[in-house]
Write a structure and sequence with these properties.
- The chain folds into 3 domains: 23-137, Rossmann fold (3-Layer(aba) Sandwich), CATH 3.40.50; 148-243, Rossmann fold (3-Layer(aba) Sandwich), CATH 3.40.50; 248-385, Rossmann fold.
- With 386 residues, the chain is an alpha/beta fold.
- The chain has a 5-stranded parallel β-sheet with strand order 13-12-11-14-15, with helices on both faces.
- Helix 1 (23-32) packs across helix 6.
- Helix 5 (97-102) links the parallel strand 4 and strand 5 (114-118).
- It has helices at 23-32, 45-54, 66-71, 74-84, 97-102, 126-137, 160-173, 218-231, 238-259, 273-287, 313-323, 332-337, 363-385, and strands at residues 34-35, 37-42, 60-61, 90-95, 114-118, 148-151, 178-181, 185-186, 196-199, 210-214, 266-271, 290-296, 307-309, 327-330, 342-345.
C-alpha cells in the first residue's frame, strides 16, 4: 500500500548520507519499532527506500513526484493517511527535506492520533532523529509497574533482537520482570514503562525511568545489575555476576590460546560511539589489541582512544589507509575498503549476508559472541595468508 505508485519518480536526490544514516532514518527506526504506529515517510521515493532497506518493519511513503512538489503535497499525504488510519492506533508522519524546505501548512494533520516529526536529513544524525521521535511519543513510567525497561533496542540494528533477548534473559535470571522495550514493543507500552531502566546502547537513552547502567561488556553488565539491585527490591545480582565470571574464564582461555600462536591484532573500529568504545575495551582487555582508531558514526565524547567522528567514505578510507589495521570491526563499507583485513560486523549496513539468528552484542552472550567472531576472523585471515 503506497510503497509504489504508478508514474512515481524521485524529484531530486534524498538528503541522506549513505554511510551514516540521518535523522529521518533514526526517527523511522524508533517509531516503526512500536507495533500499532503507522510510519509515513513524507518525501520522494529515495527518501523512502533507504530506511525501508534497513528497517525490518513495514513503513509507508508518499512517493512525491514533481507535480506535487510544485503544486503542494497535502492532498497526496492525506490520501495515504486516510488509507492507514483504520489499521493503526497512531500515524506518524516523517517530514523529509523537500516538504521541510517548502514549509507547507498541512491542515489535514490537525487531528487526534496523527503526529508529525520534522526530521529531514539535514537535521543531524540517526541518534538525533531517534531521540527526537521518542520524545514526541512522550513515554512515561506507569505508577506501580514492576518491570525494568530495556533501552537502546533499535530495530535498524542487526543485533537488536539478540540484545533485547539477552537483556530480558539477564533480567529474568536476577528475578526481575521486563518492562517496556524502547523501541521494540507494543504501542500501548509507551505509557506503561517501569520505574527503572537498563540499556543495550547508551547512545539511544530514552530518559524514561531511573537509569541503572548498560550491558556493554562483562564488568559493566555486572555493575549494572548490582546498581539495579541496590535501587530495586527483590533483584538478586549474583546469578548475573556468576554468569559474567564463568564467561570471562572462557574468554580468557580462548584468547590466551590465540595469543600463544599469533600477535595481538591491530584494530580499527567503526560504529556508534558507545558500542565502539565498549568493543575497544573488550579487545584491549582480553587480546591486548592495539586500537589504531575508532571511527564514530555519531558525536564523540571523551575517551582514552583515538576517536574520529566518521560519517563519509572518504574519511573511512583515509583512516584505514593511515592505520593499516589487520582487524576491522564495522560495516560493509569498511570491509570493502580493506578486503584483506579480518572483518567482524558490528554496525549497519551489513550487506551480502543472511541474518536470521538473534545474535547479541550486549550482555554476557554478546561478549562471548564478540570474542568468538573476532578470534575466528583473525584465525581465518592467518590461515589464508599461510
Amino acid at each position: 500500500m503506497h510503497e509504489m505508485r504508478e508514474g512515481g519518480g524521485n524529484p531530486g536526490l534524498p538528503c541522506i548520507n549513505p554511510v551514516c544514516p540521518c535523522a529521518m532514518t533514526g526517527a523511522a527506526a524508533c517509531l516503526a519499532g512500536f507495533e500499532g504506529i503507522g510510519v509515513i515517510v513524507h518525501g520522494s521515493s529515495g527518501c523512502y527506500f533507504y530506511p525501508a532497506t534497513l528497517i525490518p518493519a513495514r513503513i509507508y511513503g508518499t512517493m512525491l513526484i514533481e507535480e506535487e512538489i510544485i503544486f503542494g503535497t497535502e492532498e497526496r499525504l492525506c490520501e495515504v493517511i486516510t488509507d492507514l488510519k483504520p489499521g493503526h492506533a497512531c500515524i506518524a508522519v516523517l517530514n523529509t527535506c523537500v516538504p521541510a524546505v517548502l514549509g507547507e501548512d498541512i491542515s489535514c494533520l490537525q487531528e487526534e492520533g496523527i503526529m508529525v516529526i520534522d526530521s529531514p536529513g539535514f537535521k543531524g544524525s540517526f541518534e538525533v532523529g531517534y531521540i527526537k521521535a521518542l520524545g514526541a511519543l512522550a513515554p512515561e513510567p506507569s505508577p506501580g509497574a514492576a518491570g525494568v525497561n530495556i533501552d537502546g533496542v533499535n530495530i535498524a540494528d542487526p543485533f537488536h533482537r539478540g540484545d533485547a533477548q539477552e537483556a530480558g534473559r539477564l533480567l529474568s535470571a536476577s528475578g526481575a520482570e521486563t518492562g517496556t522495550i524502547f523501541c521494540n514493543d507494543r504501542y500501548e507500552m509507551i505509557k506503561r514503562a517501569g520505574a527503572w531502566t537498563i540499556g543495550t546502547n547508551p547512545d539511544l537513552k530514552s530518559g524514561v525511568g531511573t537509569w541503572c547502567g548498560d550491558l556493554l561488556g562483562l564488568s559493566v553488565t555486572g555493575e549494572t545489575f548490582r546498581r539495579l539491585s541496590d535501587r530495586c527490591a527483590g533483584i538478586d545480582p549474583e546469578p548475573v555476576s556468576e554468569e559474567c565470571r564463568r564467561a570471562e574464564e572462557r574468554i580468557v582461555k580462548a584468547c590466551d590460546k590465540y595469543l600463544r600462536r599469533f600477535d595481538p591484532p591491530c584494530a580499527a573500529i567503526f560504529s556508534g560511539f558507545s558500542r565502539a568504545v565498549a568493543i575497544a575495551d573488550h579487545l584491549k582487555t582480553y587480546l591486548d589489541a592495539d586500537i589504531a582508531v575508532i571511527g564514530s558514526r555519531n558525536a564523540i565524547r571523551q575517551s582514552g582512544y583515538r576517536v574520529e567522528e566518521t560519517t563519509g567514505l572518504d574519511q573511512m578510507e583515509e583512516l584505514i589507509r593511515e592505520t593499516a589495521p589487520d582487524l576491522i570491526i564495522g560495516s560493509s563499507y569498511e570491509r570493502r575498503l580493506m578486503p584483506g583485513a579480518a572483518f567482524v560486523g558490528a554496525t549497519p549496513p551489513l550487506r551480502g549476508r543472511v541474518h536470521l539468528h538473534s545474535r547479541p552484542i550486549a550482555g554476557v552472550e554478546g561478549a562471548l559472541c564478540l570474542t568468538e567472531d573476532v578470534l575466528n576472523a583473525c584465525m581465518d585471515r592467518h590461515n589464508k595468508r599461510h
